[in-house]
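Q: I'm writing up a methods section and want to include an example of the input and output format. Could you take the sequence below and give the corresponding predicted structure tokens, formatted cleanly so I can copy it straight into the document?
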Amino acid sequence: PATRETADHSLPFCISVPILFGALRIEHFEAGTLADPRLHALMAKVEILEDPELTRAYPGRLDLVTEVECTDGSRFEVCIDCPPGYAKRRLTPAQARAKFDALVGADPDPGRCQRLWDAAYGLVTSGDVRAAMQAIAAPLPG
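A: Here is the clean output for your methods example:
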């Protein structure tokens, strides 16, 4: 993938980044990571296979299975039954806030971050789209 928009829809990218960097965070979608030759080499080794049983369960469930074969021949498997944030496993308010903080990063105006959170969470609880959009569109100070 060459852009954030294509990377966040690329299974090889989303599988390879945590293997290389230990996690998949917003900064991994920047140009430096997208161009990293180590990432491209690992992504070229990723093979995506459909599991008909998992496909049949969708959309009621979104279960994920990832198997990794190491260079020494050892293998390990990670299974996630309905990842947090999926419709059947909604994020708690604390999990949603932690994700929000990680995505927003270090905003020069902490008050703006709180206003954005209040608007976004208010949208979830009240459905007030206008307030959320007004908070998002508010200009940064200075």
